[in-house]
Each structure stands twice: as C-alpha cells, then as structure tokens.
C-alpha cells in the first residue's frame, strides 16, 4: 500500500484556486509527514504519529469557560462524581459575556462561576476589572502558549491557533469532562492549507479582510470539521494581532481549529508573557493536506460581510456605493478588540466627528489594552469624536447588552457573526468589517472606505 | 442539564412529524443569546427557533423530528441549542450535515443527530418519519419510502450506550476508583 496524493480537480463552489489533494491510501510501513495540528495532537496523546480521522485522547494544557457556558459545565461537573478539578492551575474561568452583569439572572451566572472558582481554589479566575474578553486576555497574559492543546466552552477558542497552539471550542458537557479528567477525546481533523500570497496594495487591508475573503471563497461550511492552516508570505508579514483575528474566525468556515506556524514574531510576542514553557511545531514538507486554497492578496480590498452570513462578502467599494445609512458601529470583540484594532480606528477618527445619526461603541478587549488606550490618547480621540468607550465585554457582539439593535436598525461591526438576530431584533442587520472601515463608516453614516475619510 | 433520557440502546424507534428548516441554521437562531442568562431546558425550549418559526414550541408534539439542510448548528458552542431542541420535544434531528460543535454537544446531552442527505432533500414537511437509531434506517410512513442515515462510529456508540458523556465518564471514574 502506498500513499497517493491526487490533484483531483477543481471544486465548482470554491473556484479555480482550490486543488483537492485527496489522500487515498497509506502504507503501514511508510513514515508520512504530519501537519502542525497532527503533531500537537500526537504529542498530547503520547503517540509517535497520527493522521486525519484517527480518534485519540489528548492531555489538555488549559480548559476555559465563561459566565454563559461555565454554569452549565459546573452543573455537569457535579454529576461526574469527582470532588476536584484535574489541576487547579489549568482551569480558567472568565466572566466576560454578560459581565459586568446586565441583569439578575446574568449576575447569578457570574456568581456561580465565581463560587466554583473559590471552592476549587482555581488560580486563574479573573474578576471584572482584572480581566478582558477571554480570547484577547489569554494570549495577552501568556496563559496559552505555542504547542498547547486548549479547549474552551466558547466557539472562538480557536483564536489561539494564531500562536501556533491547537485550540478548539466545545460545549459545556465536554468542558465538564475536561475539568474532571484533564483529557478529552478528539478526531484528528483533516487539514485545509490556506496559502495567502502577495502584499496588499491597500494599506487598510488587515487580517480581518484576509479571513473574510477566505470565508467568502469557501463558504460557512467550507472547512467544516477541518483544521485551517494559514500560511504564505502575507501571513508571515501579518502582525500577531492580525493572526489572532484570522484564527479566531476559522470557526466561521466551520473549522475545528485555525493554526499558524509560529515564527520569530510569535516568539517575540510570547517572550515575557508566557507563564509556562512553550513548544514550536512546524508542518512537515510532505504533510498531507485534504485541500489547498490559495488567495493572492495584492489587489484585495477591505471586505464587508453582508447579512446574514459571514461568507456574504463584497468589496468595500461596492458596499459604499450602495449608500446604506447605518445606526450603530461596534469596534471591539474577541475578533477585533486588540491594540492594533483600536489604534487603526483612532487613526481614522482623529479630529473627526461621528455622523449625527450614528452611535459608536468602542470596546477594548482587555484592561491592559484599555489602559494603553487611555495612556496613548486613543480614548480621548474616541470621546472627542463622539463615541462611547466601554469596559471590556462581549456584550453587543452576541446581542447580550451594551448596544442591542432595534427592529430595522443597521450596524457596522468588527465582530464575527452577522446571523439573524445576533445583535438584537431579528429584523436588524449587521455588516462585518475591519476596524478601519467601521471607523470610516461611523464618520460618514454609511458603509465607507477608509480613504473616503482620511 | 438533564441526564440524557434516551440512548440508542433504550430507544427502539423515534417517530414523529417532520418540521423542516434550511441550510446553515446557526445556534443563535436555535436559541438567541438574549435567553442565555438562564439555562433551564424548559425555559430555553419556549424560545427555540423563535426568530425563524414563531410559536414553534406550541405546535411541536413530543417525538417530532426536525429535518435540516447543510451545516445545521453552525456558530456558537452553546450547548443550550441542542438542549432547547430536546426540551421543545424533538426526538432527533436529521440533516444533510451538521456543524461539528453542535453535533458533539447533541450526542453529549443525548439528542440523536443523524446525517442523511437524502432525507434532507426528499422528505417534505408534515410527513411522519420513523427512525431506527441503531441501524440508521429511516422510513417515511406516508409513502413507505426507506432511507439510510449515516451509522454512528463505534466510539460514539459507546458514549451513547452509556447514556451520554457524563454517565460515560462517571463509569470510567468509578472503574478507576475500584
């Protein structure tokens, strides 16, 4: 038996740049290269070699829950019949979704999480005021490091792939099992290699535009169950904030995880933050890929995802030409609430005024980002422009609070989902963009390209 | 969340009226985040799919079957979504394909989810379907047509036959204690 890679042809849905390299047969005596995802899972399962489709049990480096998924996980944990979590230093609980609590039931959920953390004497419980949006906070504080296996009861847990870790979202029951046992079963995912070539001519194009363009190309189930491995010169050139944004939205293509090979930038970022030793994995040259998607970003324009799917993308020029009036702009979230995102929005809002018909809500991803934004004058720029600056929270992104849309209202948002009713009334509309487009749109009161304002 | 009441071992057949939804039904639509400040199954069920099919819960009878298109359950990892469907009365969900976190959550809480693209395409709303979870055989009782759904892999059958993920782990933990 031999492993054969076949270039099977072109998927009509994905366009001409997709090659399907299908793995047909594999000899038992043959050493086959592995992808980063396979290597990390193998190492955590105590196996020399794994390949797509294998079922294994992997040790967990970190287990994460928030104020929405935590209470359910705690309830399930109680049923398992163990007293203590597997490791008090490896369970992270962060109230960020409806925190500071928006109402009494939310307060109750936050309180349950806090009580559990106290009872279990968890090292990593972070109260409001010392935390942030979980997926901004964990990398920033060095709680996740390259080479980790992390599960989180939140679908955007895939963010940490930006650091070269395997991380994936799970439900509350899986999380309870993870808290009890420190391990969980996984099916090794097929890997889709996403190669981004070129250097964008448009200075406002960011990691958000890359990932929206990829999702637009392959669809919201284009990478269903797969690992998305982002590579190519555009990824090498991308900032760590941009990489985290890309891995964050891998779930929006249905992926199990997104991952980027760690490089000097990763090490530079991790140094001085990491609370544990890290390990750098690279894919082998002969690793097996289920599919390869290539995108040249040279002429890529900022992308706008129209309602009601993140795959519904158009170039910003097309959206701007439609001159749709907007009511709200949100700049923040686990997708785009990092320093670079706020800094970019501030460059556009500096000495400008928000359009009279628009409200702008800026949400720094963590307390550290917030403080830096205060110190470096960003908060003043936002307030002078007529925006509000909120405490870190997931709030409006999932229609929790702090910016719910009324029937018929239209929002431009740097968040990750524009599903029906995601941010409020089922008849409201969300257009997903990068922070520069969101800021420009705030000024003009309609979806706008950054160069129309600056 | 309630212990899964139904497992493949215990449930011989699932039978009920078909309700249909389309492709890419996300978990925000299954249960909107505005209801996630509570987690009781009965409460979530009242608001299940309400932005798409208002008053659905009042119309669904216990045993009814939800038939969906591609990528059912995409988006958020909220386990509240399969819980809402289960408590709304659906005995199972049949779809062309499922988003992965939803699929895993459904198994974990004991809501059978069956991949059957043919059913998703051919079966109209309102007919009565009968599903044999152990074999994956799906019968349309209105016209006698038979379909085959995807069988569960052995690994998952083990979890399901234990009654879901928690009883499965509890068994393992007890074994270790002995």
**Order of helix and strand elements from N to C terminus of chain B:** EHHHEHEHEHEEEHH
Global shape of chain A:
globular
- Quickly count the domains of chain B: 1
- State the helical fraction of chain B: 25-40%
Q: What is the mean predicted local confidence, pLDDT of chain A?
A: 93
- Give the uncertain stretches of chain B in residue-range form: 1-11
* CATH C-level category of chain B: Alpha Beta
- What is the end-to-end distance of chain B? 28 Å
Please state the average pLDDT score of chain B: 88
Rg of chain A, Cα atoms, Å:
21 Å
Q: Could you tell me the number of beta strands of chain B?
A: 7
The stretches of 5 or more residues of chain A where confidence is low (pLDDT under 50) are 1-28
What kind of assembly state do the chains in view correspond to? heterodimer
Describe the structure.
The complex is a heterodimer of chains A (454) and B (178). By secondary structure, chain A is α/β, with parallel strands linked by helices. Chain A has 15 helices and 21 strands. Chain A has helices at 36-45, 69-80, 104-120, 134-140, 172-181, 207-218, 233-236, 240-248, 264-270, 316-321, 333-336, 339-349, 367-375, 378-385, 435-444, and strands spanning 5-7, 18-19, 21-23, 55-59, 62-66, 91-94, 124-125, 149-152, 166-169, 183-187, 191-197, 227-231, 257-260, 291-296, 303-305, 313-315, 328-331, 359-362, 388-389, 410-413, 429-432. In chain A, helix 2 links the parallel strand 5 (62-66) and strand 6. In chain A, helix 2 crosses helix 5. The radius of gyration of chain A is 21 Å and the shape is globular. With 178 residues, chain B is of the alpha/beta class. Chain B has one domain: Aconitase, domain 4, CATH 3.20.19.10. In chain B, strand 5 and strand 6 (137-140) form a beta hairpin. The model of chain B is unreliable at 1-11 (pLDDT under 50). Chains A and B meet through helix 2, helix 3 and helix 5 of A and helix 5 and helix 8 of B.
């Amino acid at each position: 038996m031999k492993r054969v890679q076949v270039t099977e042809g072109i998927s009509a849905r994905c366009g001409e740049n997709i090659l399907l390299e299908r793995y047909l047969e594999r000899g038992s005596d043959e050493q086959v290269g592995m992808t980063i995802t396979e290597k990390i899972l193998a190492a955590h399962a105590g196996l020399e070699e794994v390949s797509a489709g294998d079922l294994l049990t992997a040790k967990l480096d970190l287990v994460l829950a928030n104020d929405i998924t935590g209470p359910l996980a705690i309830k399930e944990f109680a049923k398992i019949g163990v007293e203590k979590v597997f490791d008090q230093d490896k369970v992270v609980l962060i109230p960020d979704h409806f925190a500071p609590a928006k109402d009494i039931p939310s307060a109750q959920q936050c309180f349950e999480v806090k009580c559990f953390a106290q009872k279990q004497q968890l090292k990593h419980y972070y109260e409001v005021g010392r935390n942030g949006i979980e997926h901004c906070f964990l990398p920033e504080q060095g709680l996740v490091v390259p080479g980790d296996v992390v599960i989180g009861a939140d679908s955007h847990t895939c963010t940490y792939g930006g650091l070269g870790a395997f991380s994936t979202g799970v439900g509350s029951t899986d999380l309870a099992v993870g808290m009890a046992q420190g391990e969980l079963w996984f099916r090794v995912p097929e890997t889709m290699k996403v190669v981004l070539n070129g250097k964008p001519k448009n200075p406002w194009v960011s990691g958000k535009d890359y990932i929206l363009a990829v999702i637009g190309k392959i669809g919201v189930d284009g990478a269903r169950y797969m690992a998305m491995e982002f590579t190519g010169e555009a990824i090498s050139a991308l900032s760590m904030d941009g990489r985290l944004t890309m891995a964050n939205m891998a779930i929006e293509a249905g992926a199990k995880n997104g991952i980027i090979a760690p490089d000097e930038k990763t090490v530079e970022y991790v140094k001085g933050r990491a609370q544990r030793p890290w390990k750098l994995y690279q894919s082998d040259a002969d690793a097996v890929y289920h599919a390869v998607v290539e995108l040249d970003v040279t002429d890529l324009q900022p992308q706008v995802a129209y309602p009601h799917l993140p795959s519904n993308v158009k170039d910003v020029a097309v959206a701007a030409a439609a001159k749709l009036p907007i009511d709200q702009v949100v700049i923040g979230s686990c997708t785009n609430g990092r320093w670079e995102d706020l800094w970019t929005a501030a460059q556009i809002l500096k000495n400008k005024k928000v359009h009279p018909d628009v409200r702008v809500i800026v949400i720094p991803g963590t307390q550290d980002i917030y403080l830096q934004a205060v110190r470096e004058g960003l908060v003043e720029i936002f307030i002078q422009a007529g925006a509000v600056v909120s405490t870190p929270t997931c709030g409006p992104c999932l229609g929790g609070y702090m910016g719910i849309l009324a029937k018929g209202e239209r929002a431009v948002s740097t968040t990750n989902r524009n599903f029906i009713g995601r941010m409020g009334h089922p008849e409201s509309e969300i257009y997903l963009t990068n922070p520069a487009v969101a800021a420009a749109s705030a000024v003009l009161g309609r979806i706008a390209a950054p160069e129309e304002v600056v | 969340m309630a212990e899964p009441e139904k497992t493949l071992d215990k449930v011989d057949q699932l039978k009920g009226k078909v309700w249909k939804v389309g492709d890419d039904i996300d978990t925000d639509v299954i249960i909107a985040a505005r209801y996630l400040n509570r987690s009781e199954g009965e409460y979530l069920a009242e608001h299940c799919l309400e932005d798409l099919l208002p008053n659905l819960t009042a119309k669904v009878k216990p045993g009814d079957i939800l038939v969906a298109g591609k990528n059912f359950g995409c988006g958020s990892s909220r386990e509240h979504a399969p819980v809402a469907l289960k408590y709304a009365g659906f005995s199972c969900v049949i779809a062309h394909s499922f988003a992965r976190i939803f699929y895993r959550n459904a198994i974990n809480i004991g809501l059978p989810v069956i991949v059957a693209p043919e059913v998703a395409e051919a079966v109209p709303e309102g007919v009565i379907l009968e599903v044999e979870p152990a074999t994956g055989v799906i019968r349309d009782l209105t016209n006698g047509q038979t379909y085959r759904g995807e069988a569960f892999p052995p690994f998952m059958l083990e979890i399901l036959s234990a009654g879901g993920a928690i009883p499965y782990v509890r068994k393992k933990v007890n074994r270790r204690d002995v």
